[in-house]
Backbone:
């Protein structure tokens, strides 16, 4: 087994020439392959008003993926809690945990997962919901607790079920909350790496043990592209760079096959922004991933590695996970101590 647990983040990106049905099919295929490799979990993200992302309904996708797999944990990376009533989230994930006991995770974020106009529609013009995030997390915990049986508002079938709650973050704000509540912390270094190291230091320094967790637990999500050679990985990563440039320029496109980088990437300001987003990204052969990821894991002391892999070709994507698994597996025999 790997020296450190490996997990997968999936956004169900729609590939060029495909549609949402194909994106969901490929997401299931990714989860099944990750399960055969012994990965710990696969998480589905929440995004809205994005034409080429098929993950607007993570709870539905989680149920679909869990039904197509048998052992791997399946969860949200995450549910953007200010978009939803805590009661509804408890009911949804209580239902999932009842259907797939011991396999469901609930990762929570406070960002909208979309643009501000769509966020206002989702939140029915209640723009203050993000400020209620700590209270909403506590309310969600209450709905899952057996003590809530005395309440006039109860969540069925969530009540009394153990569904692990994670706090997701891309800045230092979430680190303080995860530490205060004694919950595991997952950081989105795959697109917002700037405050990653500062955030996990804050989390560990301020961590308060809870009934849910006795010691700090950090999971970092990073981009990974593995291939037979460094040159091939460099070629494959062009799909990810194209996607980031599309986000920066607000000219989003489907997940594209590897090829020449867009002209916009060569504009210094755009290149600088894209390169900052790639600061926690790892590309290369098994040997290169072993060396670079090993150094990253040792330096940061993370407890679990989650990877986002944007590769157009489905077989090359699966091969990337296999190469990653072997690279991490080898770390325990080359002097890295976790």
Residues:
């Amino acid at each position: 087994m790997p020296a450190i647990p490996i997990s997968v983040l999936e956004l169900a990106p729609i590939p060029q020439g495909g549609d949402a049905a194909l994106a969901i099919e490929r997401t299931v295929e990714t989860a099944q392959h990750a399960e055969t490799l012994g990965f710990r979990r696969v998480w589905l993200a929440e995004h809205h008003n994005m034409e080429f992302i098929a993950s607007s309904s993570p709870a539905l996708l989680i149920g679909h993926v869990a039904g197509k797999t048998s052992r791997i944990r399946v969860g949200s990376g995450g549910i953007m809690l200010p978009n939803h009533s805590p009661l509804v989230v408890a009911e949804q994930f209580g239902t999932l945990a009842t259907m797939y006991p011991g396999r469901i995770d609930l990762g929570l974020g406070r960002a909208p997962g979309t643009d501000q106009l769509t966020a206002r529609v989702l939140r029915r013009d209640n723009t203050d919901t993000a400020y209620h995030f700590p209270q909403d997390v506590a309310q969600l915990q209450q709905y899952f607790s057996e003590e809530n049986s005395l309440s006039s508002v109860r969540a069925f079938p969530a009540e009394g079920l153990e569904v692990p709650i994670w706090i997701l973050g891309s800045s230092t704000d979430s680190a303080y909350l995860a530490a205060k509540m004694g919950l595991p912390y997952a950081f989105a270094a795959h697109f917002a790496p700037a405050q990653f190291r500062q955030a996990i230091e804050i989390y560990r320094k301020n961590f308060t043990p809870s009934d849910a967790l006795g010691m700090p637990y950090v999971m970092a999500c990073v981009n990974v592209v593995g291939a037979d050679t460094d040159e091939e990985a460099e070629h494959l990563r062009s799909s990810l760079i194209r996607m980031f440039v599309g986000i920066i320029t607000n000219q989003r496109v489907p997940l594209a096959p590897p090829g020449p980088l867009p002209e916009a990437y060569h504009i210094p300001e755009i290149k600088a922004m894209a390169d900052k987003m790639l600061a926690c990204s790892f590309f290369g052969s098994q040997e290169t991933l072993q060396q670079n990821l090993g150094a990253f894991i040792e330096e940061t002391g993370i407890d679990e590695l989650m990877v986002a892999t944007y590769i157009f070709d489905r077989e090359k994507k699966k091969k990337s996970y296999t190469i990653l698994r072997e690279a991490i597996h080898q770390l325990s025999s080359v002097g890295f101590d976790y």
About this structure: The chain has one domain: 6-225+281-331. The first strand starts at residue 6 and ends at 10. Residues 102 and 124 are 34 Å apart (CA to CA). The chain is about 40% helix and 15% strand.
